[in-house]
Amino acid sequence: FARRGVTMTVSVSLRPMKPADASLLYELAKANMPHPWSKRVFADCLREDYYGWVVMQGDHGLANEVAGFAVVLVQVGECQLLNICIKSSVRRQGFATVLLDQVVTFAREKKCRKIVLEVRESNTAAIAMYRRYGMIQVGRRRNYYPADSGRENALVFAMRLHHVELSVHPR
């Protein structure tokens, strides 16, 4: 991964979220996000139609090596990115891109037509990343997120997915 002109060699692994991850992911979110989901919400995200992945530094899967996670909901041909979190100490090193790549690949496998997400209006780093990734802002939800003083708007981003169907025709 490149960071500010310096090439870093980091071993990265990605795996599906497991029930045992709920507490760990809650702690990661609590330390790195305003108003994180509860442990119960993380546990509920392993039901049908919900999918999640954990990205790690290295290949050992130890708690201190977890760099982040993503959770999606797939319904009616749409993949909604519900939550993505990267540990603040490893941001801007490509971990979010690894997760977004996984979400796009997965959404295509599930034949989704698009990916949709909401992001806090104040989260300028995430907004810039989504734009670099090719997502476009398609709306705004007023007073969507809880904030320290009242509520905060969400920007809605989307990315259309184009599927390439390959077929072999006999001659």
Topology:
Blueprint: E1 2-3, E2 6-7, E3 12-16, H1 22-32, H2 39-44, E4 50-57, E5 66-75, E6 78-86, H3 95-109, E7 114-120, H4 124-133, E8 136-147, E9 150-160
How does this structure look, described?
The chain has four helices and nine strands. It has 171 residues and is an alpha+beta fold. The longest helix is centred in the middle third of the chain and has 15 residues. The N terminus is likely disordered. It has a seven-stranded mixed beta sheet. The radius of gyration is 17 Å and the shape is globular. Helices cover 25% and strands 39% of the residues.
Produce a short descriptive summary.
With 171 residues, the protein is of the alpha+beta class.
User: For the terminal residues, how far apart are their CA atoms?
Assistant: 46 Å
Lateral arrangement of strands in the main beta sheet? 3-4-5-6-7-9-8
Q: Helicity level, as a percent range?
A: 10-25%
Supply the number of helical segments: 4
Query: Average pLDDT across residues?
Result: 84
| Number of E-type strands | 9
